[in-house]
Design a protein that fits this description.
This protein is mainly alpha-helical. Helices cover about 60% and strands about 5% of the residues. The longest helix is centred in the middle third of the chain and has 27 residues. InterPro entries: Glutathione-S-Trfase_C-like, Glutathione-S-Trfase_C_sf, Glutathione_S-Trfase, Glutathione_S-Trfase_N, GST_C, GST_C_Tau, Omega/Tau-like, Thioredoxin-like_sf.
Length: about 200
């Protein structure tokens, strides 16, 4: 069997800034979503995580790219802000807007099924699901939990279902531990900003 290793190729203070690298047969594959697609293609013994229909595949790839390129950088601003007072209302609104878009995308992509990809976890479920732990922590820290429950009910139900899945439940980080880590991040950035002034 081929040797597979997952490494980080950059030494950065916090895991949210690291670039994951998969080594497969001594060949590096970088970036989370590219790694997920590579594993899907390199080990085709089970069902694919991407839809068989080319249009549905394109839509899932679009939303996954949106998560990484547009939504997550804004979401990260909430986590990296130097203090709770600094959290910008406009940034919270942008995160909420992204969640509202995901609500609509879920309804359209899932076609009434439990996951973005249908009856089972697939590519887009993995792309967004990898942020659920941090989303829960930041939602509590920024007091937007009620928004998630009331304004994005399908997305909220999907997140509960995703986290309860046998493939995920043992690996989902605890919200309180992530909140504690988030507070450490805020303190570090506040200290760094103070030392630069």
């Amino acid at each position: 069997m081929a040797e597979v290793k997952i490494l980080c190729n950059q030494k950065v203070s916090f895991c949210l800034s690291q670039i994951p690298v998969l080594l497969h047969n001594d060949k590096p594959i970088c970036e989370s979503l590219i790694i997920v697609e590579y594993i899907d293609e390199a080990f085709p013994s089970g069902p694919s995580i991407l839809p068989s229909d080319p249009y549905d595949r394109a839509i899932q790839r679009f939303w996954a790219a949106y998560i990484d390129d547009k939504w997550f950088p804004t979401f990260r601003e909430l986590l990296y802000s130097q203090s709770d007072e600094e959290v910008n209302v406009a940034t919270i609104e942008k995160v909420k807007e992204g969640l509202a878009l995901f609500e609509d995308a879920f309804v359209k992509c899932s076609k009434g099924k439990p996951f973005f990809s249908g009856d089972k976890i697939g590519y887009l479920d993995i792309a967004l699901g990898s942020f659920i732990g941090w989303l829960r922590a930041v939602a509590k820290m920024c007091n937007i939990v009620e928004f998630l429950n009331e304004e994005t009910p399908n997305l909220f139900t999907w997140s509960e279902r995703f986290c309860a899945d046998d493939a995920v439940k043992d690996y989902m980080p605890e919200t309180d531990k992530l909140m504690e880590f988030g507070r450490l991040i805020k303190a570090k950035f506040k200290a760094e900003a103070a030392s630069q002034n």
